[in-house]
Fold these 2 entries.
Entry 1:
Amino acid sequence: MELTEARQKFIEAWGKLGSEWGINRTMAQVHALLLITPEALTTEEIMEQLSISRGNANMTLRDLISWGLVEKQLKQGERKEYFYADKDSWNIARQVAKERRKRELDPIIKILDELSAVKGNEKDADYKTFHKSVTDINKLAKNVDKTLETMLKADESWFWKSILKVFK
Amino acid sequence: MELTEARQKFIEAWGKLGSEWGINRTMAQVHALLLITPEALTTEEIMEQLSISRGNANMTLRDLISWGLVEKQLKQGERKEYFYADKDSWNIARQVAKERRKRELDPIIKILDELSAVKGNEKDADYKTFHKSVTDINKLAKNVDKTLETMLKADESWFWKSILKVFK
DNA sequence: TTAAACTTTCAAAATATTTTGAAAGCTTCG
DNA sequence: CGAAGCTTTCAAAATATTTTGAAAGTTTAA
């Protein structure tokens, strides 16, 4: 297989994977493109390489930035914005876990807490099943939450690494 | 909050969570309904409680069965099929992990293996970045795969538990 | 200030996904 | 066998999501 074809395949595969996990296909594809591109790209270049509109490119890039997966780069004496993706797969995974925890796990735990607190008649099979399922899932969700927190915190020594880098 | 309202909220929340993770909203809602219902339900009852069509209910239930989250129950002397969801949250998580691994992780690893094998000019920055990103993600994916496999296997002692149950 | 170079917005259009429901298929029973 | 009772199918309709692109907004430089 040739590089051009392989790059294309990677972009497609990443896009498909993304959409299977509730991430917009284009967002995943832009991310893929930036992952396999050594330099930072402009909106224009991204639009062209993926054949997407300016509006789409712009929105998608902002989303990627809000997910912490892509960053803007400003080049000396240029007005254009360049976009660059962190290529460390562990950072990517960490970042995605962090965001999904914040965006989805935390809110569902909040709801499950409320629902776990609902009182009812212990003799009522409906109530008993409801209560058991909800508290059970709540416990599991909290376990996952704690585990993620620990993993993410532990790895935040990355923070110090990046600080240290500045001084090298 | 009252039980009826709470049940409704749970169904909504589960549906929303599902759709954020690439699972059809209705599928998640049917699953939610079965999770908080002590007895097995018929298609008819599910259609009514969630106000969905027969076709939708049927498809959704078949999907849930193929995900291993719901099972059919046949009752003595009745022709109707009843549907019942396993209420053990750990089993649910295990089952989802197992299926997504099979459906999504395995295929992407296969593609990444192919793409990792693509040869190119080591002096070419594009090639180098492509190759590094792809092999890197491939390694991570394989790690996740191995970890899941180990976890799922370890837990298959559940298998023996269920066998033993039959003899009690 | 003005104009050029970019970026952002958002309503409408395009696309993709989900849902419907009527018809066709089974299976069982009399 | 025929019909009743259920389940499955699938094309069309409804809905939801994504994408477009032109216009508005912003920033910089002269």
Entry 2:
Amino acid sequence: MTNAGTSRRRSIGAQRNPESQQAILKAAEAILMEDGLAGFSIEAVARRAHAGKPTIYRWWPSRAALLLDVYHHQKHVERVPDTGSLETDIIAFLTALFGYWRDGNAGAIFRSVIAEAQTDVKATDALRAYVLDRFSQSAEFVRRAQARGEAADWVSPELAIELLAGFAWNRLLTSRLDDNPEELQRLARQISLGLKG
Amino acid sequence: MTNAGTSRRRSIGAQRNPESQQAILKAAEAILMEDGLAGFSIEAVARRAHAGKPTIYRWWPSRAALLLDVYHHQKHVERVPDTGSLETDIIAFLTALFGYWRDGNAGAIFRSVIAEAQTDVKATDALRAYVLDRFSQSAEFVRRAQARGEAADWVSPELAIELLAGFAWNRLLTSRLDDNPEELQRLARQISLGLKG
Amino acid sequence: MTNAGTSRRRSIGAQRNPESQQAILKAAEAILMEDGLAGFSIEAVARRAHAGKPTIYRWWPSRAALLLDVYHHQKHVERVPDTGSLETDIIAFLTALFGYWRDGNAGAIFRSVIAEAQTDVKATDALRAYVLDRFSQSAEFVRRAQARGEAADWVSPELAIELLAGFAWNRLLTSRLDDNPEELQRLARQISLGLKG
Amino acid sequence: MTNAGTSRRRSIGAQRNPESQQAILKAAEAILMEDGLAGFSIEAVARRAHAGKPTIYRWWPSRAALLLDVYHHQKHVERVPDTGSLETDIIAFLTALFGYWRDGNAGAIFRSVIAEAQTDVKATDALRAYVLDRFSQSAEFVRRAQARGEAADWVSPELAIELLAGFAWNRLLTSRLDDNPEELQRLARQISLGLKG
DNA sequence: AGATAAGCGAGACGGTACGTCACGTCTTCAC
DNA sequence: GTGAAGACGTGACGTACCGTCTCGCTTATCT
């Protein structure tokens, strides 16, 4: 930080000031972490970041946009496990996702993004695009299982991931992220072998 | 309606006036249906119901409480299919749920409840209790399949339902309720037979 | 004051709270007195009066309306002198007006009202109506002079007052209110006798 | 205009660019004419003149300074009538002034200057200096009347002009510039002969 | 039967946040 | 160093809701 404490942040000419951008994202993240979505307002972010509201609105057209940007700036979890076996891949996938959401702020932030998407159409669209992209990435480990002959040809890798992700969303959105290893094992077994066993 | 148009609603003494209660719930539902969660405010409900704000606050302590009450007053879909076969039961379950959410207002209202639950802890608790109850009810058709020998003994009916419900939630929350029958069939097959086929 | 310091001002039901009204007018007056028109904002008045902005906007549709109201709540100067002689009446009229504007806040407030009237059409209309009314009231002493035979029949009392008032406005608006008794005497003489002497 | 439309205005080295200066003054005048003082902002002038804000602030330290400059660049009316008679000189003086203010933009601009002078002390000083200078110039026709023996020796030409100007200001500031010839005649008669006739 | 108590619509209250506008300052880059 | 350009922090704008309060009323229930 070049400006550490001594002087205020200023314009650096007719171009975006990355210090302001960082300060705003950090403030937004901190507020979400501390007070949740309820305390998250443009005004509060501006106050905490020592930024002007117009500066925020200049670069993020809405609360939802800022929220999504905060989420995207989170460190990402590896979502394509590769343990060599479908069943353990499933367990690894869910364990990593639950841990990611549980340990840092990512869970609280993602809950906020989902909530926002129920109000703001742009947020809905952005969230849909995001999850579809994620699903197709994560589906890779199922595709690998198919290549290994471990999964049937007729299964849809995306649909399989959607099933796992839907399960995880439900747990997240109802505050039930405490992962039970046996439960996950059972789930992985159910999914890989099917209800019919 | 006893008071049809001619006179205003009044107190009926030191007791809750059911007409007011009904008017408020109807107004709340109409607003959610027409404008979604974004337009849903106590102020707007009071305006539309020709009710005083204190009347609303007297009986519903928060926005979330009113929202949940609206949802509970919706007609419920039958969630325990019984077609005689596990695979068609799964299809029937999801088809009914998607249709229920898509056709009436129930989808918009449930999305609102979920969103509210991300902000309001009481709403989270209420939602969690609600879904756990629902899951255990719906799990009945999986239990029946087990009884028929159509599903393995070691599978958890609740977990199975949670998988289906999670899938449905994800579709609802990202506005992807347009149900594709083939997709549902494939999903049902995946779940019943497992990825390994 | 019934609420002296101990408790906050509250709603007294579905009716205007006169305490709030008074607090707002006093705050507005104090701000004008201390900081002039430059510091006069609805926000500042609300802050000082411990009132909500919507409360101000509820009762005064604009800055101009509040400004005029503040001016109208000033103590009024007697503008119809009656010394028995036209010339001394003129001197008394101007002396009183200058003194009124100079001594209290009235001058600063009236300057603000005039300035506002150059921006806001409603304020222009209100100011015009106000001055025309004032002129016709003040014209009384000229009418009395006519009745006494001290002024010619063909003179217009209103026009005469407008001449005096215009002179006073000019002095007020250019910060030249320091009254010079000899100058006023000369002016009174000029007006009563005419330039031709 | 040398640069008509084809290219942007640029620096012409370490000296003031008169094209920019002209463009800014023209833009300021046009805005005052079209939207009045309410629409007059440095931002709006910069936008309309395709000028940078710092360019404006470099040469005019405040809104008031720009306003006064715009006023000074107006074509001036001849304010020293010479009809040979005091009474018709008075009528000519007022008719010319009213016409000047009414016909072009000058009235709107001068109103703005006066309003600004109620907020900005520098503008007050500049306005006072300006009007005192004007008064002494215009007083010339009264002095001539004195030289002709048409006005008494003891009258103050400046005071007489101040009376006329004050009358005119009042009309300008309350949007009553519609000149009534008979009224002006009566006024001229009152002033020249005096109220006592 | 009269008093009491609570519910009702209404709407004002002090607040907070909204999204926009203009302020005056600052920096960049072309000339 | 001047020019256009435009980002910056600041703060006011006028509006929407928040949750609380009091009003004036209506009516069932309890003396």
